[in-house]
Amino acid sequence: MTAEPDTHQVAATADVAGTARIGPGTRIWHLAQVEDGASLGRSCTVGRGACIGPGVTIGDHVKIQNYALVYAPASLGHGVFVGPAAVLTNDLHPRAVDSAGRLKSGDDWTPVGVAVREGASLGARSVCVAPVVIGRWAMVGAGAVVVSDVPDFALVVGVPARRIGWVGRAGVPLRQGDDGLWSCPQTGERYHEVDGNLDDFRT
């Protein structure tokens, strides 16, 4: 295993607020924006044109692809993948103006966030409509629109997103055996389903 760099790397064209906290080994690419108070862990990647909102918290080894939009107050656990142009929203009732037609200010709405748990993946151009929780190691298909919580290890697709199967930690769809347990054809790891939820034998 190679050692992580002691410092982070920021492209000259990126816009990183002075109050943002960037972990060692993290790389921020061209035209990306990291706003006030955002916190990124170790060895993350923030792709070209991505936007990380103020106060967003991001764990270690997170990959945020080009032009993804992660609006506050989102939180991303360790090992999360956010695909190209994915969006994590933060306004349940979005309006530019109030009911009287006046331009809304920051005090005229209450932001709500998306929480993405450890190891989960959000496919390209997927949209997570806050407030929702994406469970551990879940996978959201490309172009899906998530409007309700996603269980751990769930594979969801469509508009609105619905579960069509389970995936393991390797991201490969699981297969159910004659004993009722689910297994990963790539790693051999086994999982058990109870009351519509999946768990592995590590917990």
UniProtKB/TrEMBL annotation:
UniProt entry tagged with the keyword Transferase: yes
Transferase found in the keyword field: yes
Species: Pseudonocardia hierapolitana
Protein name as catalogued: Transferase family hexapeptide repeat protein
One GO molecular-function entry: transferase activity
InterPro entries: Hexapep, Hexapep_transf_CS, Trans_hexapeptide_repeat, Trimer_LpxA-like_sf
Lineage: Bacteria, Bacillati, Actinomycetota, Actinomycetes, Pseudonocardiales
Alphabetized UniProt keyword annotations: Repeat, Transferase
Domain of life the protein comes from: Bacteria
SUPFAM superfamilies tied to this protein: Trimeric LpxA-like enzymes (SSF51161)
Pfam families listed in its UniProt record: Hexapep_2
